[in-house]
Amino acid sequence: MRKGRGVSGPHMLLKIIEDSKIPLGEEETRLQSIKGKVERDAQLSRDDEDFLARLAERANEWQRGTKSSEATETADTMSG
């Protein structure tokens, strides 16, 4: 059975998004709605799943950019 993977997927994506601290703007309301469904173990629509996947990818890119920026700033301040 692979049901466990389906249940943990949305939880994992939500954690990635929340941990990234990415600014969400207008998407915050929709994310909170989806989060409520995930917490109740309600079935997500395909559109909700796609939204979470896209947002998680943006969150990963955001974190990579933040880490890259921090590394650059550290190097700049130490060089001179």
Q: Report the order of strands and helices.
A: HHH
Residue stretches low in confidence (pLDDT < 50, at least 5 long) are: 1-7
Total domain count: 1
The count of β-strands is 0
Query: How would a textbook summarize the main sheet?
Result: none
Span of the ends, CA to CA: 58 Å
What proportion of the residues is helical, as a percent range?
Answer: over 70%
Strand residues, percent: under 5%
What's the total helix number?
3
The coarse silhouette is: elongated
What's the average pLDDT?
84
Q: Over all CA atoms, what is the radius of gyration?
A: 16 Å
Decide which structural class fits the backbone.
mainly alpha
Please provide a written account of the structure.
The protein is mainly α and 80 residues long. The protein has one domain. It is 80% helix and 0% strand. It contains 3 helices and no strands. The longest helix has 33 residues. The N terminus is likely disordered.
